[in-house]
Structures are given as structure tokens and as C-alpha cells.
Amino acid sequence: MSERPPSAASAAFFAWPPSEGESAPALSVVAPMFDEEGVAAALVAEIAAALAGVSHEIVAVDDCSRDGTRAALLAARARVPQLRVIAHAANAGQSRAIRTGVLAARAPAIATLDGDGQNDPADIPGLYAQLVRPDAPPELAMVAGERRRRQDTAAKRIASRLANAVRVRLLKDGAADTGCGLKVFWREAFLRLPAFDHMHRYLPALMRREGFGVEFAAVSHRPRVHGRSKYTNLGRLAVAIRDLTGVMWLNDRARDPREISEL
Predict the structure, then answer these.
(1) What class does CATH assign to 25-252?
(2) Per-residue pLDDT tens for 233-253?
């Protein structure tokens, strides 16, 4: 797979050199997990198989699971040496778990996917190739997945469709499915974004607020086979208005310097 290195103009933002004597992977896959004992090991194995042709590491973040997720990940590490297991001492939510994984990552490019197994790791190479392609726009910082044929309940699909429509109208982020966990982006671009709970649902809008480019690609979606969803429609509605208001506030106060140069 041919890779597009960061342009000279963006190298200061996107380059992440390895430690002395260490060879950095090209891609870090961050998988936040909370009570996913039944799927954790299988998902790690799937990620490793899907990225057999790409230099990568897998950063699984256990968000203080109450079941055997951590033990399953530690056992999987013996079979998948590129797996790293990061643990939270207290449950901090999906956005914080993703940020923990990105901070720990050693690659300049990051892929994220949900830890419940509904995202297909086989979609990661395509998103990554789209991000690093030689003719990508220099400002491109993220390729976000959009789920096709969602394997969720009708109620969840309807609620998601309505929420996406409201968000697009208010934020104008162009994202049809911002709740999809499958995304590939430059690490340094992500670390320039404001961090807050539930920010993972607003990444396209936050990227564009910083002047970065975002593209989208269709990805598959699988039924949940273990555990249960950590979100409900009512639970999402309870925080959606506050989150949307907060992101609109951030967007209204963004200032664009148009171009930055060192003289």
C-alpha cells in the first residue's frame, strides 16, 4: 500500500517520531472497551488479520470493565504481540477512552472502532488507504465511516436518523452518520481538538472547525453478538441538546487565520 507522508506544511502538526531505537508503526488502532469480555479477544484477532499487510499496533483501552474484559485482553496479548492493553482505574466513558488510546499511540495515523464487534475491522485498510493516498488534499485529516445496512433495532435506527438530521442542520458538518465508530485520522490533528465527554460523536465538526478536511466512506455494520449496548435512546437524548449547544458555541467562537507562516 502506497502511503502519502504528511506535506512539508503539515509535518509539524502530523509527524509523530518514534522513541530513540524504536520503530514506530504506521497505524495505531484504538479500541475502547467496557464490559466486552465476550468479544474482546476475537475482535483483537480480527484487527490483526485485517491489517496483516500494514505496520500497526492495537491499543485496547479497558474503561474499568466490570466483567472479564481485561483478563481476556491480557490473554489475547500472548497471541497478538502488537496488542497493548491500557486500563482506566475508573469508568470515564467512550470519548475519554478513545483519547487515552490516542495519547498512548505510537503511530502518526489512528484508526478507531467500537469495542463491541459491530464495526468490521476489514473496513480499516480501505479508510486508511483513502487517508494516505498520494493525491489526497493536503488538508485532509480524517476519513470517517458511514454505516450501510445498520444491524440495530428499528427504534435505534430511527432515533439515529433524526439525530443526524438535526446535527447536520445545526453544525453543517456534512456527516450522515457521525455515530459510526470507524474512523481513521492523523493523531496530531485529533490532539488539537477540544476534549470533552461525548466528543467522539462530533469529530467531523471539530476537525472542520480547526480547518482540517474530512472525507467519508461507506462501511459495513454487524449485529451485536455479545453483551448489550451501553446507550439508550433516552440516554442519548438527555445529553444531545447540551452537547449540540456546546459544539455550536465552540464553532461560533472559532477564528480562522486563513494561513499560518513562519517569517
Answers:
(1) alpha beta
(2) 455 656 677 788 888 888 887
